[in-house]
Every structure is written in C-alpha cells, then in structure tokens.
Amino acid sequence: xxAPVPDEKLRLGGMALRNGLLVHGPTHWAAAVRTDSGEIxxxxxxxxxxxxxxxxxxxxxxxxxxxxxxxxxxxxVKRALPEARLPMQDARTLGAMGAAALGGQAIRSAGAxxxxxxxxxxxxxxxxxxxxxxxxxxxxxxxxxxxGELAAYHGVEHKSIAAYEExxxxxxxxxxxxxxxxxxxTPMLAAAALGNVAVRRAGLRGPAAEAAVGLGSAAVAVEVFxxxxxxxxxxxxxxxxxxxxxxxxxxxTREPTAxxxxxxxxxxxxxxxxxxxxx
Length: 279
Prior knowledge:
Blueprint: E1 13-16, E2 20-24, E3 28-34, E4 40-46, H1 61-80, H2 91-116, H3 123-145, H4 150-166, H5 185-201, H6 207-230, H7 235-252, H8 258-276
Antiparallel strand pairs: 1-2, 2-3, 3-4
Helix pairs in contact: 1-6, 2-3, 3-5, 4-8, 5-6
C-alpha cells in the first residue's frame, strides 16, 4: 500500500462521480459514466495549466495550484459529458452543506456571546471550538459518500488505478488507496482549526480571512501528503494515513459491482489513450 508509482507507469488520480469515474493524468483528463439507459459514455480533454508544474519547487504554492487545476477540470467534464453527475450534485447533500455552514456559525456565535458575557475563553476552549467547526464542515462530504452509488464508484477509482499500477485485475485490487484525498483530511482540519484561532485572535473576520485560512490549510495538507509519499515507510507516515484509511474503509468506499468496474475500465482506457497519443 505504500509503494510508489512504478517508473514505467503514469501517475494517475481521480474523482468518483455519482454515475461514473473521472481520471486525471499528467496532461489530460478522461471520464466515463453509465447513463440512465445503461449506456457507457466516455469523454476526455486536456487539463488546464494554472502553473502547477512551474511551481513544483515552491512548497505550499504548488499544492494549491495543482488542486485548483483539478477543480478546473470539473466544468470541462460537465460540458463534454452532460450526463455526468458530480459528488455534490444532490439536493440532500447541498442541504447538508447549508446545515453545516449554519451549525459552524452558530458555534462561533455562541462562543462570541460567552466572551462578551465574561465567560471562560481560554486557549483550549477556543481551539476545541474551532476543531468542532472543522469536523462539522466534513459532514457534507461524508454524507455525499454514503448516498447513492458514490462510495461504490470511489471504490472503482481506487481499484482501477491500483490494478493499472500493479498489473492485476481490478476486481482483485484493494478498495483503499494511499493517494486518496481522504489522507488530506486530518492535516487540513488541524491546520484550519489552528488558522481560524490565529486569525480571530488577531481580530480578522470576513470572507478574506476565511479564504486565507482555507488556502493555507489546503497548502499544509498537500505538503504533509507529499512528505508521506517521499517517506512511505516512515512510522509517522503510517500514523498520518491511518485516519484516511479508516475513512475509506468505513465510510468512503464500497465494493463495486462488475458493471461499475466496467465503467472504470472505460475511463482508464481513455486516459491511457489520450496520454499516450502524440500531440
């Protein structure tokens, strides 16, 4: 599980869709979905270049730019493949996101009223409150994963990519993977909680401060993730990956059906085709 990508293989990533799989290669993306009529549809294209490669030597910046490039692919997928249903493209999930935002705001407002009334507002209490807010913000993603077929297609993503890297059948591959975004969760939540404490104690409020904390926590999480890839046999790497593996095992992934693995194979075939074609 901690082995790096073989030298002769492309480094692939992906994102589960509600009805299929999106795969990222070094320069292109490919997606496959199963439509309501049962047909498999495939699309692909070139990834946007926002400077991720040029920032490879700049810690913090490189991770944020690569994440931004991955997010910039999503509207391209929807344009080329309108049948694709995104992870958050669900009324219940959007409702959960709204509830999480309101819940986080309510917790912070309660803390502010407590301070105004002269109640205890020690460092531990503040960090604890921001940790709770950060955990609440995770709830919509977990809710999305457990609804519909998304968890199964998350398993398709991991099994398809692992099978490609290890030259084995997708059905035999594990549904948990070391390059899953779930491994970003723990460092991102920790950085977000500490960052929010810092900006609020500095008297900063509003969208700009929240955006700065969000970008900073994402940058920290990606750097921790990258360090783990460079040190796969470290005891600290195993410790840092444990929460992500548990999220995948318990909540984030489900064993897919043969029909779902067929969709994953179509996406993988397409990404290998477009990545290996001459320009």
